[in-house]
Design goal:
heterodimer; A: 10 residues; little secondary structure; B: mainly alpha; two-stranded antiparallel sheet; 2% strand; protein transport (chain B); endoplasmic reticulum (chain B); cytoplasmic vesicle (chain B)
Chain lengths: 10, 212
């Protein structure tokens, strides 16, 4: 599965 | 959260604080590209607008606030408080050549065509090239103070560690974010030449200076 929003990285 | 992500974040934090302390303690921003610092402030501002819309963790919020605060403090020192020491004559990179294409690309290639998401994408693309004015300045003057090279080293290390973090997350979480990965690879590549000089010169106790 690709990206999930909200973005959890800095 | 894995160890690569955490050390990446801490490395990023170290870079930001090294630069801020260097400028603060020496009362001088000579050799530092104000343009790169403005770009980084813009990167953090456009990326962390989600501070207002979603809460991820105390760690996440704290780090974002520190990054933003330090980047604005750095810009303030360079352009206001210590303006007299700013080496504007050598800081001549044309940032519009970065901002305009990066802005266009963020509109064209993004995960979701919404304002916050486009700004996030813009910040990811912009971060990958934001160091160019600084590297350009060093190539122009042909040298950098050792403390400035430590700053650049930690900034590059942060991105390299994030690459490992993404490989980790792909294997163990099935997570990948193509936009962040491609931009992160580009960003890391931009540091390669510098890493080489850092290892062969600075770590052997020599000052970083380029052949004329």
């Amino acid at each position: 599965h690709a990206l999930t929003m909200p973005h959890d990285e800095l | 959260m894995n160890i690569f992500r955490l050390t990446g974040d801490l490395s990023h934090l170290a870079a930001i604080i090294i630069l801020l302390l260097k400028i603060w303690k020496s009362r001088s921003c000579a050799g530092i590209s104000g343009k790169s610092q403005v770009l980084f402030a813009l990167v953090f501002t456009t990326r962390y607008l989600d501070l207002l819309t979603s809460f991820i963790s105390l760690y996440n919020t704290t780090m974002k606030v520190i990054y933003i605060g330090c980047s604005y403090a750095t810009v303030y020192l360079i352009y206001m408080k210590l303006k007299a020491t700013y080496d504007g004559n050598h800081d001549t990179f044309r940032v519009e050549f970065l901002i305009v294409p990066v802005g266009g690309l963020a509109f064209l290639v993004n995960h979701d065509f919404s304002p916050l998401e486009i700004l996030w994408t813009f910040s990811i693309y912009l971060e990958s090239v934001a160091i160019l004015p600084q590297l350009f300045m060093i190539s122009k003057t042909g040298e950098a103070e050792t403390i400035t090279t430590h700053y650049l080293f930690f900034l590059g290390l942060y991105r390299a560690l994030y690459l490992i973090n993404w490989i980790w997350r792909f294997y163990f979480e099935g997570f990948f974010d193509m936009i962040a990965i491609v931009a992160g690879v580009v960003q890391t590549i931009l540091y390669c030449d510098f890493f080489y000089l850092y290892v062969t010169k600075v770590l052997k106790g020599k000052k970083l200076s380029l052949p004329a």
